[in-house]
Amino acid sequence: MARTNKANNDQSPQSRLHALGVARLGLIGKHSEQLMHAYISGNFDESSVSESALDKLVKARLLHRPDENQPLALRPDVNSLIASLTEDERKRQINADVAGQLEQIRTRVKHFSDAQFRGDYAASEHHFQLLTEKVHDMTGQFSDAIASLWNRLNSDFGFVSNLGDKIRENELAQKQLRRLLDGFELIDFNELIELAQSSGPLRKLLVSQLQVTISDHASSLLEVQKRLVELMARFRQQQERAQLISNMAAFLKQHPNFVVGDYPNRSNVPVHFNHAAPIIASASVALDKVGDQQVLGDVVRALDISTISYVPPLESGGEFDLEQELAIEARHQQLKQDVESFFIATFEHREPVSAIDYLQTQGLDWDGEMWLFQVIAEHEGLAYQLRQRFDMDKKRAFASEFNQVEIISDVTIEVNVGQYGAA
Amino acid sequence: MIEHGPLLETLLAGASICQISDEEAFRRLKDEVVREELNHFLRPLNRRLAQSQDGSVFFLAYQELNSSAREHLSKEFKQTIQSLLPLLEWMQLVQESLGRDGALSAGDTIQFQEFALRTEDNQSLRQRFSQLASDRFFKSSSDNLDSQLKQVFKRLKETGYLHQPHKDRQFYLVTGKIEQLIEMVCFIKDEESLPLDEMPQQESMF
Asked: Mutation test of the interface with chain A: which of B186, B188, B193, choosing the one with the most A Cβ atoms within 10 A?
């Protein structure tokens, strides 16, 4: 906007414009923190700057009050400037007003031709410069718009979080795109050729350059459009799918007794339900082919199997084998009964009876350790009163001189006569 | 034919083959000639190669629907219908807890840890998950979230809905079987003329 022209003196309007522009751009830099905060939060924190600074910001047309009751906010131009600088797709504007721009171009061309006709060289140069700028502005806006659309596409509309928003953003982008394409149609190159007449630079600017740019943009836009439509189809599909799942789940919950048709017994079974039962292709060692015997022999020899250490594989891991369980239970009962008999037998003796001796004399085939263990367990398992009738003595010894683990080698039980008599 | 041996065996054992669960086998099954060959072999076993409507999954179907085939299908069908609600619920839970845009589809990845953490942190998700885990499809009898999670993922792996590419790494890929499930839901919806489209829209939890 502000442009220096050293040929002009300090008082010229251009240099005043320059100074003002520099001052206001400086203002943006000075308050960039607060302005950016306002951009994100939507309104300007008036307490963050001094009153005079606030005044300056309003005068510089950076801030305005949209409504008397509203807090100060960024002017729309500032908002879109920041959005474009930061490529913030949430706020980035797509300017698709081609007709208005064309109108301005036509006017400028007339200014230019007029000045040339008058022979005012300086004025015609100035108008040409403005015209060039206008054309570049317009094409620049197009390429910005296209870049913004690509950006949205490539991020899968990641700047909004849920699918519904994405679909709406996509719809909006498609509308903007259509308006841009419609705008391109308004650019009538025949008219521009006529406007440029015989002027070389004008022809170059308005016809050849613009034509190349616009056709580039148009093909780019068509590609964007195709991709947007594809993406939309994907979004819609995702949405339908999520809806199908949640609706079906809700339906099944609401109708617990819902019965579906008997598809497997229809004359035409739908492919969804025709899943064949598994077949396991099993094979065993076979020795009926002479050539195989050598190979199989090698395989067997390579295996480290001995018949002694063979452990039958566990059957059906999860369930208890009831038969085995019952056998163990029966043996345990037998052991208990034998121990009880031993306790009863102690009544026939006045002196302590050794459990090991009893085991041997009765010819019971229990393991000694298991036997003693059960005797002790039985004694300790008796009710207190009953237990006092039997005196138990454990014969213990250290495992060795250096290992002080006590080992019980025998247990004797003696009927406590005093207690017995008292009872 | 001999080079298709392992593939045939997998198929006969009842597996569904998709690009995610076995890319190499899937690529081979895409070949019409290979399919012809396999079908030729399968004919005496009363089996044929079938594929889901979108062509993303191959499996074996009965060639001729005799009474024993129908008997098996009926049994299978009952189980499938029973597993429908828990599976749909699970899909919703994953979508919600991981904050996904759309419903789960084949090829999506699920990080076990991430799912576990999000479920643990959210009381409502946690409750729904516990309820789901105790469903007879997932068969978890534990009250502990961690073992419920493990059981659910184990069952999903067993039933072929999830594929675990590395045995010691806890991330899972959703297989094409989920597409089969969705196709089936669509089919039931159309076939039974369920008024699902007119149901009030359930907004997601977020």
From this structure: B188
